[in-house]
């Protein structure tokens, strides 16, 4: 975005950054519209890439059911390399609640921060036989991603404005 602007005057740097941002928005909008019209899936492409990686990782976890009323699980993650004393097993606790209502808590905090199920939650859901679709935030739906990139930049009376085009 600011490549090639280093030795330029400040006004030119700011305009170059603005035009770079506009170009970025145009590319992202075009990619989102193309994906929403050609691929018949509810979520955006990056979510499917994320979920494929998380499901592959979840298949290597050891899942132990711990709760009687709540759906609590202890997830043991495989050891990450290391030699001798350096190999440690990491465990996470997952709470899916009493009903499978799309809310999940994990000690890694990824479901709370990213609003997508982490590999530990996916391993727990696989143990119970519940689909992971309800645990992905509606933010990642295709129509919401297209809406994110539909803003227009334009110049009015000496200042730049941002307008959402419906």
Summarize the structure.
The chain is of the alpha+beta class and 166 residues long. The chain has 5 helices and 6 strands; from the N terminus they run ααββββαααββ.
What does this structure look like?
The chain is α+β, with helices and mostly antiparallel strands and 166 residues long. The protein has helices at residues 10-38, 45-58, 110-114, 119-128, 142-148, and strands at residues 62-65, 72-77, 90-95, 105-106, 151-156, 159-164. It is built from 5 helices and 6 strands. Strands 1-2-3-4 form a 4-stranded antiparallel beta sheet. Strands 5-6 form a two-stranded antiparallel ribbon. Helix 1 (10-38) runs antiparallel to helix 5 and helix 2 crosses helix 4. The longest helix has 29 residues, at 10-38. The mean pLDDT is 84.
List the topology elements.
Layout: H1 10-38, H2 45-58, E1 62-65, E2 72-77, E3 90-95, E4 105-106, H3 110-114, H4 119-128, H5 142-148, E5 151-156, E6 159-164
Antiparallel strand pairs: 1-2, 2-3, 3-4, 5-6
Helix pairs in contact: 1-5, 2-4
Radius of gyration: 22 Å
Question: What percent of the residues sit in helical stretches (DSSP H or I)?
Answer: 25-40%
Number of strands: 6
- Global structural class: alpha+beta
Domains counted in the coordinates: how many?
Answer: 2
Tally of individual helices: 5
